[in-house]
Amino acid sequence: MAMEFSYSMLLLLPLVLYMSYQLTRTLAKKKPTTHGFKAHPLLGYLPAFLNNSHRFLDWSSELIAGSPEMRMGFWIPGMRTGFVTANPVDVEHILRTNFANYPKGEHAIGMLEDFLGHGLFNSDGDQWLWQRKNASYEFSKRSLRRFVVDVVQDEVANRLLPLLRRAAAGDVVLDLQDVLQRFGFDTICMVVFGHDPRCLADGGVLEESKSEFMHSFGEAQDLVIGRFMDPIGISWKIKKMFNVGTERRLKKAVADVHAFAMDIVRARRQSASVEDRDDVLSKFVASDDYSDEVLRDIVLSFLIAGRETTSSGLTWFFWLMSSRPDVVVRIADEVRAVRKATGTRPGEPFGFDALREMHYLHATLTESMRLYPPVPMDPQSCAADDTLPDGTFVRAGWFVNYSAQARGRLAAIWGEDCMEYRPERWLGEDGAFQPASPFRFTVFHAGPRTCLGKEMAYVQMKSIVANVFEELVVDVLKEVAGGGVPEHVFSVTLRMKGGLAVKIRRKTEAY
Ligand code: HEM
Ligand SMILES: *[C@@H]1O[C@H](CO)[C@@H](O)[C@H](O)[C@H]1NC(C)=O
Ligand SMILES: *[C@@H]1O[C@H](CO)[C@@H](O)[C@H](O)[C@H]1NC(C)=O
Ligand SMILES: CC(=O)N[C@H]1CO[C@H](CO)[C@@H](O)[C@@H]1O
User: Fold this and answer.
1) Closest residue (by CA) to atom 7 of ligand 3?
2) What residue range is the signal peptide (predicted)?
């Protein structure tokens, strides 16, 4: 008996030795750390992460706020290791100075590939570069800018305002977030695709069948993002292999989206009027350089980038406004002044130049996105060993995510009143809007991969707010939203959990 025991011990010994060797090696390797935080020696950030995973954004913002380096480390054995930073010096380093060493990375790209292929949003290196060059060229054209303004103004005048007026007359409770998402989807599809999905068209809000494409797209996006949230990295691959569970639903949603997009690409390819059309797809089709699949992926990349970002920004904005009637009054004053200066009447569309004159409105939206950035956290990965400007080591394969949310709330950057909503911090003495460095205000990303749709986003948001506050009052139903800050859903974009319940009134009744 005793002999047998020691024999098996002898057999096990090498294994035990090997395992402890591996463990010490892993533990001895440099780990990212967080100032003022003690990681568990074996489990790393796992216990604290489990404690806080339901409020991950806020937790990481708190750790970052407590750190003079303005960043947190993160490691859990067997899971990914890296940093979340809000330090403008780090951000400039990863997004500009050493851009080539911080791609999206194969890990992230592999997860989105089934849905987005290798479109602009989901590629690195040369594959990204040529698409970016072509797209930047199109986005810099005046014809596209004019087209965007026309599409947006048309959607405001003929869909959004009539819908809100009807809601006012009928004393109806609306989910404003849903309305804004539909608005965003209609306009991005028209600008990118030249296709009108009519999600906000008459009855569209009630009639689900009118927005099947939006529905499939949303489902595909949520399910594919779910892959990132899964704590067990390979479980989606197993589910995919057996075509079960969420992966089965994802496959169906992706097939629907691809079929829909492909139909439009093929139809445009055969259309004789491509030269006369202003949408982005038509420009790419006209150059004849790309296969149908490549065009489809380009289009889907734009949809994912532009679909929910503006609606997220506006939903939090309208919620903030519900406790700031003083700001609403000033916006309406500015709109009235611009009407006078441009000789237009309430209800008429605003041109690009009129929108540009609205500096105060620009500041109120920017200030809202500082506190509630539509893309709260954004991942990059480190390609080769590197050091951050303050000497902190970053190993190849680690992630370096920036948190726009944490950065927007740092006293070291915005001052002691950083948690206060104060649009004036964006205005100069003369009342003109003063932009901040993109490394401090990284809401639209920065460096070579900076958001291509920033101008379009402001056109959209300003048109909606100016037209709504000129005529209507938005009452947020606090009894539905609760007293404090509404809860969020943490996906690619910062969505409000359960939507934003509002009632609409005509302004004349309010005064
Ligand atoms: C408030 C609205 C918006 C915000 C806050 C925003 C923010 C961002 C951010 C943070 C990124 C970097 C994402 C990443 O690479 O992981 C990005 C990229 C991008 N955005 Fe926006 N965006 C907005 C609206 C739009 C709109 C309306 C469009 C539509 C044309 C658009 C087009 C793009 C594109 C094409 C990229 C990818 C650029 C590249 O990878 O080279 N965005 N945006
Ligand atoms: C988990 O949260 C509780 C309550 O907030 C706290 O008392 C505890 O110390 C936390 N544990 C860890 C490991 O962070
Ligand atoms: C950083 O981003 C990557 C890719 O989305 C993700 O897998 C990782 O969990 C993120 N890390 C943290 C601490 O947020
Ligand atoms: C329309 C357009 O800009 N097309 C260009 C896209 O990029 C390729 C490769 O760089 C060029 O050859 C095209 O002319």
Assistant:
1) 228
2) 1-28
Q: Find out whether 451 is annotated in a ligand binding site.
A: yes
- Residue 402 phi/psi, 5-degree rounding, is -105, 145
Number of domains within the chain: 1
Residue 81 within any structural domain of the chain: no
Looking at ligand 1, which atom is closest to the CA of residue 442?
Answer: 10
Identify which ligand lies nearest to the alpha carbon of 316.
Answer: 1
pLDDT tens digits along 178-227: 999 999 999 999 999 888 888 887 654 555 545 788 889 989 998 998 88
CB 78 within 8 A of CB 37: no
Cα-based distances in Å from 258 to 86, 127, 261, 266, 374:
36, 20, 5, 12, 26
Strand partners, 489: 495
CA 477 to ligand 1 center in whole angstroms: 31
Model pLDDT for residues 256-276, shown as the tens digit of each residue: 999 989 988 988 888 877 778
Domain that holds residue 268: 120-375+409-510
What CATH number should be reported for the domain holding residue 195?
1.10.630.10
Could you identify the atom of ligand 4 that is nearest to the CA of residue 137?
Answer: 3
